[in-house]
Amino acid sequence: MTLMLYTTGAARVDAVQLGPDNLKDGRIDYRRQKTSRSGGTKVSIPVHTDLAEVLMALPSDRTFLATSSGKSRAAAGLGNVMRRWCNEAELPACSSHGLRKACARRLVEADATTHEIASVTGHKTLALVQLYTEAAGREDLATSAMEKLIARPNGQQNLMNHDEKFVNATPNLLKGYM
Question: What is the DSSP string of 56-83?
Fold first, then answer.
């Protein structure tokens, strides 16, 4: 879970292939399997200190997510074992893909831009990154937006529409206000 959540936000199909060979100069380097037809989107991200601690305790002769017998896992196998682990932990709404989304959400909450998040998760386009992160930080964004409105140079902060195209000729009045 640390591998998928703390740093990489890797898809299952990529996470099961990651191992010591992907560590280079304090970074995890790999190419996304999903985009392999076009050469694979290159992902190269610094290893988070929490992840480094976990990786140092793992055997160096197999993939990071190998089975207890040392065999590499299939992506579907990782999904199945994650489901079992989440159920055992009484976290039925959690999944390996949810960790990928959580990584993106945590990055946006840390003020990472959409492009920065895509560089970590390996997304080729920004549409899915935006979908994963649209709810993250909404309260902070709303606070920031209102602070900008309050601080605007127009001291009157008039609520009146000045442009005729925005004025409704027959306004809908709320009951109790007129």
Answer: HTS-SSS-TT--TTSPPPPHHHHHHHHH
- Max Cα–Cα distance, the chain, nearest Å: 77
Residue at 160: amino acid letter:
M
DSSP state of 5: I
CA neighbours closer than 13 Å in the CB half-sphere of residue 52:
10
Residue 132 contacts by C-beta under 8 Å, 6 or more apart in sequence?
A: 100, 101, 104, 105, 121
Q: Tell me the per-residue pLDDT of 11-36, one tens digit each, with 9 for 90 and over.
A: 889 889 999 999 999 999 999 888 77
CA dist 24 and 26 (Å) reads: 6
**Cα separation, 73 vs 79, whole angstroms:** 10
* Residue closest to 43 by CA, chosen among 122, 126, 129, 125: 122
pTM here? 0.68
Alpha-carbon distance values, 178 to 25, 73, 171, 173, 174 (Å)? 69, 68, 12, 7, 8
Residue of 121, 111, 112, 88 lying closest to 6 (CA atoms): 121
**CA atoms of 120 and 45, how far apart (whole Å):** 6
